[in-house]
Task: structure prediction
Amino acid sequence: MTKNIIDYLQRNKFKDLDIRAVLFDMDGVIYNSMPAHEMSWQQTMKEWNIKAEPNEFFAQEGRPAKFAINLLFQRNLNRDATEQEVKEMYKRKTELFFEFDTGELIPGINETVRIVQEQGLTPILVTGSGQSSLYERLNRDLPNVFTLENMVTAFDVEIGKPHPEPYLMGLEKAGNLKPNQALVIENAPLGVESAHKANIFTIAVNTGPMPDKILLDSGADLLMDSLHSLNSAFPKLFELMKTQKI
Ligand code: CA
Result:
């Protein structure tokens, strides 16, 4: 892990890390909701006669719905979707999502937030999701972790992942932190790309079917196969982050 930290510092020309906050992605990091997203998008596309690749929405994860729909429309029909089409498809997808979603958490997340809070770090949520009941749901499943003030959601961002905008807003919400004062926990290629472009130390946790290589190629500074592995690595990682300087 020493090399991962040194490489990060050298690439970004930072002298050291001074971690104050942890920016959490939601789908695939907090909730095991990606299988339901994949299934509901696949079925929606089928109903509109739009062909999607297997695992297409795992690959597109994090991209705002409008842009993901347009990408598939361009590939299938050589045109963008109309606003009406986007609205209707998103509505149908949301309906199916709530039918398929189990609401289960990613194993280990309770321990992850406990460690983060014990370290005195501020947990911040950075998601492209725009569910209206997001806050209530999070507060029920992970009580007293996220507040309305420390959440970046679809309602806050204009461009969305893979642009760095959402994570830059996360730094702002954490108290105008610099990129070397936070770390990101992500599971998806476009989310990793977004955090990487915001110059934040990015931990990819591969909780889905995508090959590890895609997460590393997207700019992950560290790769973990589960939150359990990350939780075990945390004490050493935090120690190294405090001591490694260039
Ligand atoms: Ca995600």
